[in-house]
Design a protein that fits this description.
With 106 residues, the protein is of the alpha/beta class. It is built from 5 helices and 4 strands; from the N terminus they run E-H-E-E-H-H-E-H-H. The radius of gyration is 13 Å and the shape is globular.
């Protein structure tokens, strides 16, 4: 599945999506989406059937192995990282906020 950027992009968001392409190459069924919420916040969602029966800690460890390639300055903009299975996506409150974010005042 392709990586999807919502809204305007910038150098930091482009860099995040570029490293997440490495995750996607190993998980071709994953849906990866990102957007900039405000000037200091990037939100990422990965919906991957491969997360089934994988603890949240192990999910984060796997994704952070890729994100750790980013400079700290870019990492500091990552405010939300949702790692869900397709079934979890349907019932996750955080996912609802990802789909319909409260507008930022920044």
């Amino acid at each position: 599945m392709p990586l999807n950027v919502r809204g305007k992009t910038d150098d930091y968001l482009d860099a995040v999506m570029k490293v997440l392409a490495k995750y996607e190459s190993r998980h071709p069924r994953a849906e990866i989406e990102g957007f900039r919420q405000n000037s200091v916040s990037i939100r990422i969602r990965i919906v991957d059937p491969d997360f089934a029966n994988v603890s949240r800690t192990d999910r984060h460890d796997e994704v952070w192995r890729v994100l750790d390639e980013l400079p700290e300055e870019i990492q500091s903009h990552l405010s939300t990282i949702l790692l869900l299975t397709p079934d979890e996506k349907k019932r996750s409150f955080a996912n609802f906020e990802f789909d319909d974010p409260i507008p930022s005042s920044l």
